């Protein structure tokens, strides 16, 4: 039998107040995919979701000139898993440099306010999350066709009509420039938050960077979370 997630859903989830699609224009973003410990990943997955082999996580850092919340920068930590046999990225937590209320209304709780930076200098990209949560370096971008980049759907946990529900989000970017990166690094060992420390990178799988329009499709609330 596959390992099911061990994340406890204790109620009190943030209500989903914005179910419309989210379009983020003038956007720049990076996505890291990396192996993480089995304990960290299972701790981030609801029991409806099973882990993959090897266990992996993702980090998305995005800087958008415009969004439903205005100019917005955010970093989202996600645990990789399978839901109904399909690959999904489950929101574990994040940092919002912008309207926390708007992001919580769209994606549920788990987000905290803080500084997020994403800077590209030629073929080099650097990002920081919070004062010490994460530091990312992509030292050498290589231009690729946008079809080479993969965007799995997300799942977040939020309250819908008073019940804790899994909420499915499709990712539908329109990419003007796409890049892969070799030699990417992710540092979380000194993170002040235990969750970010737990999701330290054991092995980098892939790293990419893109510019264009980032779209979260309309949300789909699934069955109540299995207890």
Question: What this model shows, in words?
Answer:
It is built from three helices and 15 strands. By secondary structure, it is mainly β. Strands 1, 2, 3, 4, 5, 9, 10, 11, 12, 14 and 15 form an eleven-stranded mixed beta sheet that branches. Strands 6-7-8-13 form a four-stranded antiparallel beta sheet, with no helix packed on it. The model has no long low-confidence stretch (mean pLDDT 89).
Chart the SSEs and their pairings.
Layout lengths: L21 E14 L2 H7 L11 E11 L5 E12 L2 E12 L2 H8 L3 E3 L2 E6 L2 E6 L4 E5 L1 E4 L10 E7 L2 E7 L4 E9 L2 E3 L6 H5 L4 E14 L3 E5 L3
Parallel strand pairs: 4-5, 4-10
Antiparallel strand pairs: 1-2, 1-14, 2-3, 3-4, 6-7, 7-8, 8-13, 9-12, 10-11, 11-15, 12-14
Largest sheet: 11 strands, mixed
- Classify the secondary structure makeup into a structural class: mainly beta
From the 3D coordinates, which CATH architecture would you assign?
A: Beta Barrel
The CATH homologous superfamily corresponds to: Acetoacetate decarboxylase-like
* CATH fold-level topology: Acetoacetate decarboxylase-like
Q: Compute the separation of the termini in Å.
A: 18 Å
Amount of beta strand: over 45%
């Amino acid at each position: 039998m596959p390992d099911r997630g061990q994340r406890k859903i204790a109620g009190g989830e943030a209500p989903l107040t914005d179910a419309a699609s989210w379009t983020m224009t003038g956007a720049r973003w990076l996505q890291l995919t990396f192996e993480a410990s089995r304990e960290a990943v299972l701790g981030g997955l609801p029991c409806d979701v099973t882990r993959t082999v090897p266990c992996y996580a993702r980090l998305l850092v995005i800087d958008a000139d415009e969004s439903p919340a205005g100019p917005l920068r955010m970093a989202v930590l996600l645990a990789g898993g399978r839901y109904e046999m399909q690959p999904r990225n489950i929101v574990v937590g994040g940092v919002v440099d912008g309207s926390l209320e708007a992001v919580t209304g769209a994606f549920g709780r788990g987000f905290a306010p803080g500084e997020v930076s994403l800077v590209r200098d030629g073929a080099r990209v650097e990002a920081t999350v919070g004062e010490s949560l994460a530091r990312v370096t992509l030292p050498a971008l290589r231009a690729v066709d946008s079809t080479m980049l993969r965007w799995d759907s997300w799942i977040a946990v939020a309250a819908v009509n008073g019940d804790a529900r899994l909420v499915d989000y499709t990712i539908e970017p329109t990419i003007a420039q796409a890049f892969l990166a070799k030699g990417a690094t992710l540092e979380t060992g000194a993170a002040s938050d235990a969750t970010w420390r737990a999701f330290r990178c054991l092995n980098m799988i892939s790293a990419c960077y893109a510019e264009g329009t980032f779209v979260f499709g309309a949300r789909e609330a699934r069955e109540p979370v299995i207890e």
